[in-house]
C-alpha cells in the first residue's frame, strides 16, 4: 500500500472533505491523526473507518486557531506514531455576509481558523515535514480564493491567502526535498454547502461543465496523489478540482 508507514495529520477530519481524506489515506495503509474541534464521537467514527480500511488512526482534539491546542495535536501525533510526514490543513469555516453587513468579528473569526489555523499547524509540524523523507504540506483552499464569491469577502481573502503562503513554504521546503501544494475544490457535497438553498445549488451546478457538485472522494483522490511519493516533482502549485468551473 502506497502510504504504508507514512504519518498524516489532517485537521478538521471528523467529517466532510477531511474525513474523506483520512479514509483515503488510511485505506492506503497510512497512520492518520484525526483532528477535531468538538465532535469527539464523529472523530472516533472516522478512526474506526480508517482502521477498518487497513490504516492506523488516533483522534486528537484541538482548535487549530489556538496555538497551545495545536501543541497538544503535535504531542498526540508524536506519541502515537512519531513525527508527521504529511500535514493537511483542511479545517475551515465560513461566516458569510454581504460586505457592508460583515462585522469585524466575522472577518477575524474566518481569518483565525482558515489562515491562523494553517499558520499554527504548519509551524508546529514544520520541522517534522522538513526532516521527513518526501514530506508533504497540503493546504485545502477553494475556488472561491480564485474567483471570489458574493457574500464571502472574508473567506475568499483567507482562501487566496493560502496560495501565497503555500508558494513561500514550497520555496523553503525545496532545499530539504519536501513539497507544499494547495488543492482548490469547487463546490463539494458536505455539511458546508448543506444550508445553500436548492435553487442556488441548481444555479451553481448549471455553471459546472461536468454538471455536478464534487463528491468528497473527488477531492480526497487528488490529496492522496499529492501526499504520496509519486508527486515528488510537484510543488508550489494550486491543483483545481472543480469540474471545469473556471474554464
Ligand atoms: P465541513 O464544515 O464539513 O468540515 C470542516 C471541518 O473543519 C469540520 O469537521 C469542523 O469541525 C472542522 N473545524 C472547523 N473549525 C475548526 C477549528 N477551529 N479547529 C479544528 N477543526 C475545525 O466542511 P468541508 O466542506 O468538509 O470543508 C473542508 C475544507 O474544504 C474547508 O477548508 C473548506 O473551506 C474547504 N472547501 C470546501 C468546499 C465545499 O464546497 N464543501 C469547497 C472548497 C473548499
Automatic annotation (TrEMBL):
PROSITE patterns on file: ADH_SHORT
BP GO annotations: monocarboxylic acid metabolic process
Single annotated GO MF: oxidoreductase activity
InterPro entries documented for this protein: KR_dom, NAD(P)-bd_dom_sf, Sc_DH/Rdtase_CS, SDR, SDR_fam
Keyword Hydrolase: no
Keywords on record: NADP, Oxidoreductase
Coiled-coil regions, chain positions: none
Ranges of residues in domain Ketoreductase: 6-196
Record-linked Pfam families: adh_short_C2
PANTHER family according to UniProt: 3-OXOACYL-(ACYL-CARRIER-PROTEIN) REDUCTASE (PTHR42879), 3-OXOACYL-[ACYL-CARRIER-PROTEIN] REDUCTASE FABG (PTHR42879:SF2)
Family (UniProt): Belongs to the short-chain dehydrogenases/reductases (SDR) family.
NCBIfam families documented for this protein: PRK07231.1, PRK12824.1, PRK12826.1-2
Record's protein name: 3-oxoacyl-ACP reductase
Organism expressing this protein natively: Natronobacterium gregoryi (strain ATCC 43098 / DSM 3393 / CCM 3738 / CIP 104747 / IAM 13177 / JCM 8860 / NBRC 102187 / NCIMB 2189 / SP2)
Amino acid at each position: 500500500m502506497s502510504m504504508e508507514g507514512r504519518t498524516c495529520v489532517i485537521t478538521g477530519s471528523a467529517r466532510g472533505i477531511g474525513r474523506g481524506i483520512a479514509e483515503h489515506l488510511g485505506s492506503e495503509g497510512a497512520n492518520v491523526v484525526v483532528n477535531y474541534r468538538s465532535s469527539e464521537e464523529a472523530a472516533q467514527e472516522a478512526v474506526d473507518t480508517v482502521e477498518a480500511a487497513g490504516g492506523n488512526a488516533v483522534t486528537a482534539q484541538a482548535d487549530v486557531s489556538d496555538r497551545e491546542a495545536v501543541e497538544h495535536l503535535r504531542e498526540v501525533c508524536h506519541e502515537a506514531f512519531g513525527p508527521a510526514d504529511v500535514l493537511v490543513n483542511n479545517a475551515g469555516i465560513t461566516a458569510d455576509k454581504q460586505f457592508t453587513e460583515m462585522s469585524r468579528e466575522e472577518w477575524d473569526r474566518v481569518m483565525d481558523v482558515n489562515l491562523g489555523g494553517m499558520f499554527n499547524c504548519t509551524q508546529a509540524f514544520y520541522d517534522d515535514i522538513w526532516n521527513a523523507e518526501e514530506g508533504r504540506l497540503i493546504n485545502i483552499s477553494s475556488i472561491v480564493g480564485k474567483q471570489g464569491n458574493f457574500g464571502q469577502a472574508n473567506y475568499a481573502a483567507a482562501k487566496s491567502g493560502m496560495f501565497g503562503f503555500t508558494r513561500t513554504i514550497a520555496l523553503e521546503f525545496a532545499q530539504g526535498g519536501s513539497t507544499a501544494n494547495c488543492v482548490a475544490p469547487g463546490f463539494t457535497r458536505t455539511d458546508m454547502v448543506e444550508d445553500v438553498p436548492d435553487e442556488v445549488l441548481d444555479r451553481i451546478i448549471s455553471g459546472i461543465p461536468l454538471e455536478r457538485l464534487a463528491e468528497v472522494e473527488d477531492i480526497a483522490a487528488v490529496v492522496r496523489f499529492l501526499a504520496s511519493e509519486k508527486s515528488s516533482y510537484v510543488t508550489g502549485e494550486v491543483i483545481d478540482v472543480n469540474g471545469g468551473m473556471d474554464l
